[in-house]
Structure formats: C-alpha cells, structure tokens
Amino acid sequence: VVQRASTTKDLYCKMAFFHRVARVCAKSPSLKLMNIRCRYLSIETVGVIGCGSMGHGVAQLAAEAGYNVVVNDISEDRVNAGLEAISKSLSASAMKKVEKKGVTESQALAEKDEIIGRLTGSCNMGELTKASDLIIEAIAEQHDLKMTLFKTLGETSKPNAILATNTSSLSVNEMASASGVPHRVCGLHFFNPVQVMKLVEIVKADDTSPEVITAVTEFVQKTRKVEVHCGDTPGFIVNRLLVPFMAQALGMLARGEANAKDIDTGMMLGAGHPMGPITLSDYVGNDVNLAILKGWIEKYPEEPAFQVSQAITLLESMVEKGHLGRKTGQGFYKWEGNKVVK
Fold first, then answer.
1. Alpha-helical segments (H) within the chain
2. What pLDDT band is residue 191 in, cutting at 50, 70 and 90?
3. Which of 14, 199, 212, 301 is deepest in the core (most CB within 10 A)?
4. Which residues contact 22 (CB under 8 A, 6 or more apart)?
5. What residues are paired with 45 via a beta bridge?
6. Rg, the chain, Cα only
C-alpha cells in the first residue's frame, strides 16, 4: 500500500519507484506468468527480419541509436550481404564525419566498430524471437508471407514483445489478427533510404495498446527520426496520397497528354516537388507501384482514386519488359545507380 504524496519531492520519488517497478514487471518471467500487464514496455534489443535495403537500413538505424540488434533472413548469404551493406554505409558515414565535423579517423572508425558490435546476424528465427523486445518485419511486400510470419511471431515471441510491420501498403489489422496478439502489433513504416529519410509513420491498428504506441514512439525518437501517427488506412498517410498522384501522372503519360519529362518538370517547378511523379515511379520500382495499385483496386473497388486503368496497363507493359526503374537501370528513364542519365 502506498500513501498519498504529501510534497512535490515525495511525488517524484513515488513516480520513480513505480517506474522501476514497471521495468521489473516488463522483465520478470514470473510476473508475466501471472498475466500482469505492465504500462511500461522496455526496449533493449531490436530484431529485424529481412536484410534487404529496408531491413539493413532499419537495423543500422537501431544499432546507431544504441540498441542491441539481431538481424535475420532466410540464408547466411542474405544475412552477410545485409551486414556488409551496413558496414559500407557506416564507413561512408565515418569518412563524412572526418571531413565535415573535425573528428579524427581513428575516432570515427572506433565509433563504427562500436555500432557493428551491437549487431548480430542469424538465420535462426528462434534466436531473434528469444532476444527481441521489439521485432520489426521488413520482408517482401507479399500478403501471404506476412500473414504466415505474424502467426509465427505471435506464437514464438516474448510475452511483452512488440511486433511491428514495415509494410507500405498492406493492412496492419490483418497482420495483427494473424498474430493472435493484436494488442502487441503496430505499423512502423520507414522510408527508403532509411539512413537518409527523416519520416516514420506509426500506425495504430484497431486493437494496438496505448503502451505499444508509447514505446515505439520513444524508439523512433531515439533514432532521431520524426514520427507521424495514423490509423490503418490504405497506404497510411504518405502512400495514400502519393500512389494515386503517381497513377494520375502515369495515366496522363499513357493517354499521350504529356511526355514524362514535361510531367516531371511541371510538378517540380509548378508544385515544388523535389522529384517528378514519373521519376518517382522509377525510383520506387514500377513493379512495386503496380502491385500496390492492383492490390488496392481489388480490395477497395469503390475508391475512385485507385481506378486509373491506363496507369495499370502502362505499368504492366513496363514490368513485362523488365523496365522496373532504378533497380534494373531502365524504366521510363535510364538510370546509373541513383541518378537518371537519360
């Protein structure tokens, strides 16, 4: 029994006491077995599933913020490729610090080694689920794969572990339902490239607990990103507005109303966009945009913003040719690395 605080100092002492109690609750197996639900969810180890461009970017971000990180993929080759990409990114970052911030090379490389030391690669999902307080899924944007994964995570993760999806277009509510523990599931949508883009969309599903939202908000802030909050609407905030915008531009191109360069220039100089919509479709991936649009049309047939048939036909033609954009070197434009050359 705790008596009412009589002074401000006494109040702060009692608040600190309950904060410590909550941390103990979050870590104590015996209290978990008693089904005591804690208001404080402690995140010390982050698990990232998927070592592609998004996954290794999220893993690097978490390690740089001081978290222990376990990265997982289906093969050692994929895990090693992800870790190598992180190492190269950190090396480039270290050299920039030497050039621009007056840090010595030895200091910069020592900081890199410290970050690398917080990363562990594994092909064993059990190692990740056993260790992780927050698990971020960054696998391929395929509905069935994600449903299966969240069912597994719901059955094997720690009782208080937060399960987050980095999906850009699929339903967080459906993944939450598949997990069997919907109160522990949310969306954490990072943007590509993760190391550069400042925004993270935090998506609250219907049953996501307030404690989970509080914990992931603190996590995002610790990684020095800017968070925005929304419910589980198709595409959340950014893609809900951006994909129909790209579809309208592609429809104009397909109908011959303007060419790609003029559409892009118009939106860059007339609307202040840093990149035109046709270039953006290439940058994201024409196959990705096609999959998103088709999925939304099938699931939300009454939403007129998604019904741009000419855009679908044009994207299908580009995908059939293998013109996926930046990642294949050819889309609506020719690419070398991250730059349009024609």
1. 8-27, 29-33, 53-64, 76-100, 105-116, 125-131, 143-156, 172-179, 210-222, 238-255, 260-271, 277-284, 286-299, 309-321
2. very high
3. 212
4. 38, 39, 40
5. 68
6. 22
Task: Tell the residue number behind the tokens 């006494």, with chain if given.
Answer: 10
φ, ψ for residue 312 (rounded to 5)? -60, -45
Cα-Cα-Cα-Cα torsion 311, 313, 314, 320, nearest 10 degrees, comes to: 140
Q: What is the pLDDT of residues 266-297, one digit of tens each?
A: 999 999 999 999 999 999 899 999 999 999 99
Contacts 24+ apart (CB under 8 A), 292-301: 292/141, 292/168, 292/169, 292/235, 292/239, 292/243, 293/243, 293/247, 295/143, 295/169, 295/170, 296/169, 296/234, 296/235, 296/243, 299/234, 300/234
Q: What's the rounded Cα separation, in Å, for the pair 87 and 267?
A: 37
DSSP secondary structure, 85-109, as one string = HHHHHHHHHHHHHHHHS---HHHHH
Q: Are 268 and 239 in contact (CB under 8 A)?
A: no
CB neighbour list of residue 342: distance below 8 Å, 6 or more residues apart: 333, 334
Alpha carbon distance 309, 155 (integer Å): 41
Residues known to be catalytic:
168, 189, 201, 239
User: Distance between CA atoms of 119 and 70, rounded to whole angstroms?
Assistant: 6
User: Does residue 42 register a pLDDT over 50?
Assistant: yes
Instruction: Please state, in angstroms and rounded to a whole number, the distance separating the CA atoms of residues 194 and 225.
Output: 10
Identify the three-state secondary structure at position 233: coil
> pLDDT value at position 23?
52
Hey, what are 126's tokens?
Answer: 């059990």
Report the 10 Å Cβ neighbour count for 26. 23
Report the alpha-carbon distance of residue 301 to residue 316 in Å, rounded. Answer: 19
- Model pTM? 0.82
Nearest to 275 by CA among 264, 266, 284, 285: 264
pLDDT at residue 41, as a whole number: 85
Put the strands of the sheet holding 199-204 in their side by side order: 119-122, 68-72, 45-49, 134-137, 162-165, 185-190, 199-204, 226-231
| DSSP designation for 157 | S
